Amino acid sequence: xxxxxxxxxxxxxxxxxxxxxxxxxxxxxxxxxxxxxxxxxxxxxxxxxxxxxxxxxxxxxxxxxxxxxxxxxxxxxxxxxxxxxxxxxxxxxxxxxxxxxxxxxxxxxxxxxxxxxxxxxxxxxxxxxxxxxxxxxxxxxxxxxxxxxxxxxxxxxxxxxxxxxxxxxxxxxxxxxxxxxxxxxxxxxxxxxxxxxxxxxxxxxxxxxxxxxxxxxxxxxxxxxxxxxxxxxxxxxxxxxxxxxxxxxxxxxxxxxxxxxxxxxxxxxxxxxxxxxxxxxxxxxxxxxxx
Length: 291
Prior knowledge:
41% of the residues lie in helices and 23% in strands. It has helices spanning 3-15, 18-25, 29-40, 62-86, 103-117, 130-139, 200-211, 225-233, 243-248, 282-290, and strands at residues 51-54, 57-60, 93-98, 122-127, 144-148, 156-170, 191-195, 217-222, 239-242, 255-258, 265-273. Strands 3, 4, 5, 6, 9, 10 and 11 form a seven-stranded mixed sheet that branches. The protein has a two-stranded antiparallel sheet with strand order 1-2. A hairpin with a 2-residue loop joins strand 1 and strand 2. The model has no long low-confidence stretch (mean pLDDT 91).
């Protein structure tokens, strides 16, 4: 069993086609097909048929399904070993992901400090939803993700960064803006502007409202907190946002008030794979992000 044979096998399994797999791997189809046959051969390979060839369609057999996860793991381990050797010095690459309710507020400062301290490191940033970032961490496409607890996957390590309060965002001339704090009972008749439910923060705010006996009258949903705040500033409703979003609003387009005591909070965390390669600069990035 050769490494290139496993690579060709995975390519066929993932593309569902010998032709597309050959194109992806940069070899001719006869060459790829020959290597798959050698992998299936009893003398040189696993001795089991790995694919059922149904015309132009290629389907994994049970043996192929069993081999696929192992082959993907082997190829990933080789890739990580190569990267570990290549990046054993101060340089290299650090791939960072963050969810949209954190990225625009936290990353600019953290990235600036990190680049100043580690100018030889290339940072690759990705902003995406929690579910997709977790998948990237598991696949080795990201080194670290900045998101919110809880993280329920035993393969991943989640380290607490800090806890922040959630605050009420009001139109600047709203009658409640004169108060020192606002309770959910105070906004029971107010139109609400919330994040789309694909965001975990949107779910958190809804759960907060329901625990407080409030069924919010949602008049608008958005995909970015900056859009929500612009709608609030325009007088279209009220919203609940992370404190970091309020801090970042230098123009004070909205009025921000605490939500009583105990204040609702969320806890940010840094997440990485327990057994995958961790660049030496990952720890430094996490510490700078905490600060």
